[in-house]
Amino acid sequence: MAEQGSVVSQQNLDRSCWVCFATDEDDRTAEWVRPCRCRGSTKWVHQACLQRWVDEKQRGNSTARVACPQCNAEYLIVFPKLGELCFLNYKTRPHQIRRRP
């Protein structure tokens, strides 16, 4: 079992982003994802690179479908919930900020 864990760890160390081609060594702080059923060298991508790539493919149409260019799995795009709307009046002081539900 320990040998299998080291193989998985080694595979994670050999990650390469299929969008920008950077590796773990190039950016140790980047967030990595596996968004589809790809395997091998195309399974890993930076979260930020994937978001930028999807934006480019959608060309401003947030309802446009986008699929992995390698395995053709359709990406399910989930938008975050919008938070409370906050109106700021530039003449008010910070303690006078009015919030609207």
UniProtKB/TrEMBL annotation:
<protein>
    <recommendedName>
        <fullName>E3 ubiquitin-protein ligase MARCHF5</fullName>
    </recommendedName>
</protein>
<dbReference type="InterPro" id="IPR011016">
    <property type="entry name" value="Znf_RING-CH"/>
</dbReference>
<keyword id="KW-0863">Zinc-finger</keyword>
<keyword id="KW-0862">Zinc</keyword>
<keyword id="KW-0479">Metal-binding</keyword>
<dbReference type="Pfam" id="PF12906">
    <property type="entry name" value="RINGv"/>
</dbReference>
<keyword id="KW-1133">Transmembrane helix</keyword>
<keyword id="KW-0472">Membrane</keyword>
<feature type="domain" description="RING-CH-type">
    <location>
        <begin position="9"/>
        <end position="78"/>
    </location>
</feature>
<dbReference type="InterPro" id="IPR013083">
    <property type="entry name" value="Znf_RING/FYVE/PHD"/>
</dbReference>
<keyword id="KW-0812">Transmembrane</keyword>
